[in-house]
Design brief:
Number of domains: 2
Number of strands: 0
CATH architecture of the largest domain: Orthogonal Bundle
Order of helices and strands: HHHHHHH
Strand content: under 5%
Shape: elongated
Length: 109
């Protein structure tokens, strides 16, 4: 496997574990909800079995997370970032520029 692809795959598996734990689901419970043997998630998280896209989508349904949220760069702040983005979308171009200037100033402090 290409090193970059391997790194990205490890990030996906990390996020699977993150959302499984965030939803207080055991690996066994998750495996059974997905319709697999009770050790399936352990094998996925140890990367001894490759995760299929269809299984990932079923998993996201179980943990009630959209693919967009799952792949978002900062999953812990997804909801707040989307709230900010929604508020900004309704602003005038001038106000958007003001918000951007303020954000850049805050970032540089």
């Amino acid at each position: 496997m290409d090193k970059n692809i391997e790194k990205q795959y490890k990030e996906i598996i990390f996020r699977v574990g993150y959302y499984r734990n965030k939803n207080n689901l055991s690996a066994r419970e998750t495996s059974l909800q997905l319709g697999y043997s009770d050790s399936f998630m352990n094998r996925i998280e140890r990367q001894s079995v490759e995760l299929k896209v269809s299984t990932l989508l079923k998993f996201l349904d179980i943990v009630n997370v959209s693919p967009r949220e799952f792949f978002y760069s900062d999953p812990e702040n997804y909801a707040k970032d989307m709230e900010i983005l929604s508020a900004i979308k309704s602003l005038s171009a001038e106000n958007k520029s003001t918000i951007l200037d303020l954000a850049n100033k805050l970032k540089n402090k």
